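Pasting as-is:
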Amino acid sequence: MNFNIVLDNLRLFLWTDGEVTTGLWLTVQLLLICLAFALVLALPLAVMRISKSRWLSTPVWFFTYLFRGSPLLVQMYVIYYGLAEVEFIRESWLWTYLQEAYVCAWLAFGLNTAAYTCEIFAGALKATPPGEVEAAVAIGMSKWARLRYVIYPSALRRAMQAYCNEVVFTLHGTALASGITLLDLGGVARAISMQYAAPFEPYLFALVLYSLCTFAILRIFRTLEKRYMAHVRPRASQRVTVKSASSSAAEFQDARQY
């Protein structure tokens, strides 16, 4: 194995080739932009998804079904290659942006992530304890105030672990960006592998970088859970009580054997 290949192209792997953004920095950019776009889109869609009105819930159901029921790579190809065949789009102001592979990539990733995030948040909203809503109504909160200060914060806490998994999946999904000419982390690994006819070293280094990013995401969410889910964790006195009860039960079982 010759890891000098990686060292010679370290700059390409990490941030740029001198003209355009590549490698890890491009992957992080795509991840952050599509997560922000998906989050802004998913929060109102989740409320519509659980609405009793079919006029609101059905379009959202169709959106989530479409993007969760088809491969991300196909969605990206449709946006990048397919929209270019629509004359209306080519003649509109949208073509200024949609002709760029970068924009098409984060749009595809964002819509796909929004569909999954919408379902995660919708499930968390459905699980909101009725007592929290009743207490908000009792103190005179408006519907918007209840949604902003009670329902959304409570649902986001419950959805945190599932959303963490979705962020990790989105990170891994960005590796498909190389399919539309972008040199993200996976694309750089493939390009260097083909250039040097060395498939092992570039992909191994890309694997390490992806793993480090995943570890960073998990640590961030672990910190957020400690901060915002502290009320769920048992107190030290409760843990001691539970431990003592478990020990007493074990001693009782041992005594019965004799």
